[in-house]
Amino acid sequence: MKTTISEVGKHVGETVTIGAWLANKRSSGKIAFLQLRDGTGFIQGVLVKAEAGEETFQKAKELTQESSLYITGVVREDDRAPSGYELTVQGFEVIHEANDYPITPKEHGTEFLMDHRHLWLRSKRQHAIMKIRNEIIRATYEFFNDNGFVKVDPPILTGSSAEGTTNLFHTKYFDEDAFLSQSGQLYMEAAAMALGKVFSFGPTFRAEKSKTRRHLIEFWMIEPEMAFMDHEESLQLQEAYVSFIVQSVLEKCPLELQALERDTSKLENVKAPFPRISYDEAIEFLKEEGYEIEWGEDFGAPHETAIAEKYDKPVFITNYPKDIKAFYMKPHPERDDVVLCADLIAPEGYGEIIGGSQRIDDEELLKQRYDEHNLSQEAYQWYLDLRKYGSVPHSGFGLGLERTVGWISGTEHVRETIPFPRLLNRLYP
Fold first, then answer.
1. pLDDT band for position 357 (50/70/90)?
2. 165 pLDDT exceeds 60?
3. Looking at domain 117-416, which of 3.40.50.40, 3.40.50.1820, 3.30.930.10, 3.40.50.1000 is its CATH number?
């Protein structure tokens, strides 16, 4: 019977055949231990010389790392194995013999591993991170589908900037200038006016020359937008969503978290509601902690980490100064110097994972913002139309997938949280 490693628990005591790769092996004089992987998981195959025969045993000893094979054996329960099972090997058929596989069990430098990213993905650690990434994506769709959202796909090629910045990748769109999208948000606002509650999930691009462990040039964003929803309601949705994906990973990826040696006790506590601190309070706290920062300055990684260390859950920092936030954010009703916004800071030094706000819904105020930010009213007329024809209170946010994967999986650098990272000095492979 043909099966997969993830399904062997259904076949205890039965003889099965699995298509697999040889991740590693070791042998004594009488027993060979084959570490096997098939994409769904990892399992140890135990081949006993006395049972399999001299010829099969010798062939097993000659198997090379990452050779592919069909392997046949009996599924046994084994409490010592991470998955709870192992395979008593009866025989195997080599599909392809791999020679001189470059990533050996020894230590390799980061640049070497990144040059061989197409092969490094096969390792147990990278496999675990990718499975956790997949579960976050799956849980995202479940959460928003169950809460009445419609998936909408904004364009990747745009004629203008969502944030009004210059950190854009420029290209030619026939005889016009175009840019790779740095956010689908403005388009999602239009979709929300048509469909009520919407979300997008897609790639975004930032031409920032940053080398920090939190930054990628190309990354994926989940961007919900909600009509008839104010800032407070949006914060409640954000903490419900983040709680849901964390608990989903805990439930569905225990082997992957174990492989990464993740301290799951820190994740088990991630349940709504989350603590909140205003920007004003954050500035005062940082000054008390000895940081040289003045009101009106944005927070860097050390500041966010210091604030997050006060809490054992993600923390919202609310009501940032208007001058350091995007043009579309709605002013605070009681203060014209701050806006109705929040950043969600992950624990354990992983930084901002969500940025969100209530959006300006007044046509005249948005025109004023265009002038203040030197934005072309012609290029943004369609966005202004959303306030001209049936404007409503509305809010939205964006969650960066890779930073979230990094935090939940306990991975230090975002380059390991996406299959093929695009970094400042890396476009290969």
1. very high
2. no
3. 3.30.930.10
CATH 2.40.50.140 domain position(s) in the chain = 2-96
Distance CA(276)–CA(424), nearest Å, equals 34
Tokens of 330: 């709605």
Verdict on whether the full-model pTM lies above 0.90: yes
Neighbours of 390 (CB within 10 A): 8
Unique residue bearing structure tokens 């409490």? 79
**What pLDDT, in 10s, does the model give residues 255-282?**
999 999 999 999 999 999 999 999 999 9
Which CATH code, of 1.10.10.10, 2.60.40.420, 3.40.50.880, 2.40.50.140, is assigned to 2-96?
2.40.50.140
